[in-house]
Design goal:
Distance between the termini of chain B: 55 Å
Oligomer: heterodimer
Distance between the termini of chain A: 76 Å
Number of strands of chain A: 0
Largest sheet of chain B: 2 strands, antiparallel
Order of helices and strands of chain B: HHHEEHHHHHHHHHH
CATH topology of the largest domain in chain A: Four Helix Bundle (Hemerythrin (Met), subunit A)
Low-confidence stretches of chain B: none
Low-confidence stretches of chain A: none
Shape of chain A: extended
Largest interface: A-B, 23 and 27 residues
Strand content of chain B: under 5%
CATH class of the largest domain in chain A: Mainly Alpha
Order of helices and strands of chain A: HHHHHH
Number of helices of chain B: 13
Helix content of chain B: 55-70%
CATH superfamily of the largest domain in chain A: NADH-ubiquinone/plastoquinone oxidoreductase chain 6, subunit NuoJ
Structural class of chain B: mainly alpha
Radius of gyration of chain B: 22 Å
Helix content of chain A: over 70%
Largest sheet of chain A: none
């Protein structure tokens, strides 16, 4: 049962990601990306990590993608503009894709090679309490660093968006004088 | 044969529970619409619908039939797939939280041994809910935050200016008020020490002063305000502001497609009322009831369930009352209210709660 569901959601995730890359229309790509996030959340639930699944939907599908769709709708981007600049990126893409494929096969090989060991059943590892405990004891430093990084990004965004405004205000004042 | 029955019985029970819960909620929602029209009528000095059935009681069914038989119209230049997908997203995301509603306390006194094939073996209690898991509260927040896509995509796919404005407003509003809502919920979560809805209610079932509305009154007000905004209700109904945007995001929707949006809005209202009741008013818990009936008995469950419904009806009435009395916000007022007032208040309340919990006062 679990494996049927896994293949269902994994297939959905793969199909949605292919659609995301191939669609010319940015809004369709965004919708496909939401599909990917939701399929991944379902896989997290199958892996006994309900907290991560809920947060995945809440943060990625619910907040970040709403912002993306908001921007796409606000700008009302033109459809099918042929890519003429940056053609050499196709080559880089092919190279990176091959590297990813090799990596995937390597991981697959390594997994197949390892003896079939039953991992310690940590069915409770995905629960909220345990995640919180791990985050604030064992992984405190990475969490703090990530927090500081995010704060820096927010402050940077504020300054960048405010700079133009300041110039405009000064210009306005000069004109007033 | 016996094994098949043993294997399928839990599935059948779950389906029966889901069927009961969904239909119960949908019938209440249908009558909320009628109640809204009636109460708005009284507020405005009218009578309200009174033609269909006695006292207008069959009006919801008449409305539904009318929706079904109306002509289906889709704009020529709309993006068809997304256009038809949007109302479905709206309604599905509105209906999904029903599975974690806490309808009542568990019933423990029924002896299940009368069931054939030993089906009742090891069954100790009958929980009056479909599911309760470790992250139930987050689940509800996550699903309701996905629901906004229904509105945003409807606005985009209709290929109409009014709809697009409605969709844009809705997504901006949703992003702004979700933060305040999440922050106001966190205070309750911290006091209960869990994200599970069952445990949050359990934490409030000692005496009425344990209801989280007393220590978390600020959180309650923030949650209620944000909830009005999240459900796109007056005074925050800018996505469908009739006076400026015709009908906002559903301008181009007709017949049953419109009915789906309409239903989604009212189911969302119900969900938010359930959340308010559960987080701040103790869910199904009625103070002092355990002196009259034994906890876990059938009458206790029935009276608690009625109490739960009454608390929800109070919030639904509040929604209608506010709609009848308050004017609509302007868009810039909405944004500055959300970001400059509601969010700082919610975060202040959160910090206050952290200190109080740390000091052991709450």
């Amino acid at each position: 049962m679990v494996s049927i569901l896994f293949f269902l959601f994994a297939g959905l995730a793969i199909a949605c990601s292919i659609l995301m890359v191939y669609h010319k229309n940015p809004l369709y790509s965004a919708i496909s990306l939401i599909g990917v996030f939701i399929a991944l959340a379902c896989i997290y639930v199958l892996l006994a990590a309900p907290f991560i699944a809920a947060v995945q939907v809440l943060v990625y599908a619910g907040a970040i993608m709403v912002l993306v769709i908001f921007v796409i709708m606000l700008l009302n981007l033109e459809e099918d503009k042929q890519l003429t600049r940056l053609r050499y990126l196709y080559l880089v893409g092919v190279f990176l894709g091959l590297a990813l494929l090799v990596q995937t096969f390597f991981i697959y090989h390594a997994v197949i090679k390892t003896p079939n060991q039953k991992a310690e059943q940590e069915a409770t590892a995905g629960l909220t309490l345990n995640i919180g405990r791990a985050m604030f004891t064992e992984y405190l430093l990475p969490v703090e660093i990530a927090g500081v990084l995010l704060l820096m990004a927010i402050v940077g965004a504020m300054i960048l968006s405010r700079r133009g405004e300041q110039v405009k205000i000064e210009e306005f004042k000069r004109r007033e004088d | 044969m016996e094994e098949i029955i043993r294997a399928t019985f839990p599935v059948i029970v779950y389906f029966a529970a889901i069927f009961l819960a969904f239909n119960g909620v949908l019938i209440i929602v249908a009558y909320t619409v009628l109640a809204e029209r009636k109460i708005l009528g009284w507020i405005q000095g009218r009578i309200g619908p009174n033609r269909v059935g006695p006292w207008g009681l069959l009006q919801p069914f008449a409305d539904l039939l009318k929706f079904i038989f109306k002509e289906e119209i889709a704009p020529d230049k709309s993006t068809k797939f997304v256009y038809y997908l949007a109302p479905l997203i709206s309604l599905i995301c509105a209906l999904m939280p029903i599975i974690v509603y806490p309808f009542g306390p568990p019933i423990k006194t029924i002896d299940w041994s009368f069931l054939p094939y030993g089906l009742g073996e090891g069954v100790k209690e009958l929980p009056l809910r479909i599911a309760d898991f470790d992250v139930a509260l987050l689940y509800v927040l996550a699903i309701t935050s996905v629901g906004v896509y229904g509105i945003a995509l409807a606005g985009w796919a209709s290929n109409s200016k009014y709809s697009l404005m409605g969709g844009l407003r809705s997504s901006a509003q949703m992003i702004s008020y979700e933060l305040a809502m999440g922050a106001s919920v966190l205070g309750v979560v911290m006091m209960a020490g869990s994200l599970s809805i069952g445990k949050i209610i359990q934490a409030q079932t000692q005496y009425p002063t344990k209801w989280f509305i007393i220590p978390q009154f600020v959180g309650f007000l923030v949650f209620l305000t944000a909830a009005f905004a999240e459900t796109n209700r007056v005074p925050f109904d800018l996505p469908e502001a009739e006076t400026e945007l015709v009908a906002g995001f559903h301008t181009e929707y007709s017949a049953l497609k419109f009915a789906l949006f309409f239903m989604a809005e009212y189911v969302n209202m119900f969900t938010v009322s359930v959340m308010c009741t559960t987080l701040f008013l103790g869910g199904w818990y009625i103070p002092g009831l355990s002196y009259i009936f034994e906890y876990g008995s059938i009458p206790y469950a029935i009276v608690s369930h009625i109490g739960f419904l009454l608390k929800i009806f109070f919030f639904l009435f509040l929604y209608i009352w506010v709609r009848g009395t308050l004017p609509r916000f302007r868009f810039d007022q909405l944004m500055s209210f959300g970001w400059k007032f509601l969010l700082p208040v919610a975060i202040g309340n959160l910090v206050f709660t952290i200190i109080m919990v740390y000091l052991g006062i709450f």
